Structure formats: structure tokens, C-alpha cells
Description:
It is built from 3 helices and 4 strands, in the order αααββββ. It is an alpha+beta fold.
Amino acid sequence: MAFHRGxxxxxxxxxxxxxxxxxxxxxxxRASLESLTGALFKTRYLDRTEIADVLAKIPLALHxxxxxxxxxxxxxxxxxxxxxxxxxxxxxxxxxxxxxxxP
Length: 103
């Protein structure tokens, strides 16, 4: 039973640390997030470029350092030749990458 208690305590400690870090990041980036919220309410949709424009004025911070948003897709296939077995990557309306396997 002591083994299970140790796992429970370790998990609880890890969750507490993650929660504290999440709250810290939200508080640190509050101005950036409120700026994004305002822009989103105004236009109802923001693409990558618009998000980057908003965050250029008030950059996000990670561990105390400003982080510039990347405008590059996570996985670009523009410079690769396609073949029937190649994974195709496209961008969804919200800017997230969608992957599908070609037949």
C-alpha cells in the first residue's frame, strides 16, 4: 500500500507544480492574452499573420524571455516532392496542421 501512496504523492506534487507554472505563465502573459482576446472579439477570427501582428506589440514571455511567434507551419511540405505514400499536410481554418495519408 505504501507503493501506491508514493505514486499518489508524486503525481500530486507534479500536478501542483504544473498548476503553479500554468498560473505563472498566464499572469506573466496577461497583457498579451488580453490583447489577443480584444483582437479576436473585434474580428471573430485571427490568422497566423494577424496573431503575429498582435503579439509583435506585446510579445509572449516564456520563463522570463520574450518569445516571437513563428509564422512557419509546423511541417512544411512545399519543398518536397509528393508521392502516393507521402503524408500530405494542409492548414485548417484555425491555422492548425491537418495530416492525412494519401492512398
